[in-house]
Amino acid sequence: MKYIIVGTGNISRTYLKALEALPASDAVGYVSRSNAAGATVGALPCWPSLAQVDRPYDAVIVTTPNALHHQSAIEAARLGKHVLVEKPLDITQAAMDDMINEAARHRVVLAVSYQRRTNPDNLAVKRLLEQQAFGRIYSADLSCRFWRDQAYYDSAAYRGSYAIDGGGVFIQQASHNIDNYIWFFGMPERVRAELDTFAHQMEAEDHGAVVLRHADGMIGTIVASTCAPPGYPPRLEVSCEKGTFTLTNDRISHWHVAGIENPAARAEPAPDDGASNPAVTDTSRHEAVLADFERAVAERGQPLAEGSDARRATDLILRIYRCRA
């Protein structure tokens, strides 16, 4: 497949590197409103809008700031192009509705890069949960204790803002982990949260704690922070009818479950966790997302994180943010 990458920030280079590792796929060029027609980014051409791209391509990868995702996704869908969006899908329910509806109307695939879903141990746990192999789940405690210095928030005016980022640590750094939580356990019935800004000059929260109650009685907790130096790998601890298990950075680090062999896969090193640095040096999970996206396009099927499913992370985060009132 041939791609146009919308946006020229750091994450766009991650996708470019991931595409270079896929022999049958490549980037045709970029779209950036800040560049004039005929400009280049590196060795690739750059256009001010998708409508002005004059080379054939199959799909777009949207890497613009969070609140702008819907603009490019809707434009691409109307052009009949498939869409892969960097997380989150968007920051408002109205924008996400429009994206999903336009993709369906024009029969294009809409997927979100929640690449933690591709990790083998996460997939193994997901299968066991679908089989109800653990019995009743009692509790799930998610810890996302990350670190970002003030320079990170000062690097762009929109960082940590409600209007563009959509909020702070929950919608930005912890969004991947919250997506995994919902993918595993579904949406809670009740949400209670305490949020604040402690260590940074920014509009939104840099720390918060959430208690979630699910329809089956399970109690979940989420702690998310960017003021926990030096930054720690995300950790999910689960207690269930048959025992306990822990995922640390998406790898099974503890397993004490009666009657079920530990399904941990150890054939490859653990990928970056982003705990202390937003830069992505290992593109293997993005490569997996792209391969899954292309499979969905070829089979006219659903990607691993299709739009209406992936939106649930934003839906839950918006419920958490409403607790601020």
List the helices and strands and how they pair.
Elements: E1 2-6, H1 10-20, E2 26-31, E3 39-41, E4 44-47, E5 59-62, H2 69-78, E6 82-86, H3 93-105, E7 110-113, H4 120-130, E8 137-145, H5 150-154, H6 175-185, E9 190-196, E10 207-213, E11 219-225, E12 235-240, E13 243-248, E14 251-257, H7 284-299, H8 307-322
Describe this structure in words.
This protein is α/β, with parallel strands linked by helices and 325 residues long. It has 2 domains: 2-114, Rossmann fold (3-Layer(aba) Sandwich); 116-277 and 304-322, Dihydrodipicolinate Reductase, domain 2. 29% of the residues lie in helices and 25% in strands. It has a 7-stranded mixed β-sheet, with helices on both faces. The protein has a 7-stranded mixed β-sheet with strand order 9-10-11-8-12-13-14, with helices on one face. The N and C termini lie far apart (46 Å). The mean pLDDT is 94.
Number of domains: 2
Strand order of the largest sheet: 3-4-2-1-5-6-7
Poorly predicted runs are none
Bin the helical content: 25-40%
Q: Tell me the span between the first and last alpha carbons.
A: 46 Å
CATH top level label of the largest domain: Alpha Beta
Rounded radius of gyration (Å): 20 Å
Count of separate DSSP helical elements: 8
Give me the CATH fold name of the largest domain. Dihydrodipicolinate Reductase, domain 2
- Percentage beta strand: 15-25%
The total of beta strands comes to 14
CATH homologous superfamily grouping of the largest domain: Dihydrodipicolinate Reductase, domain 2
Biggest sheet features: 7 strands, mixed
The second-level CATH architecture of the largest domain is: 2-Layer Sandwich
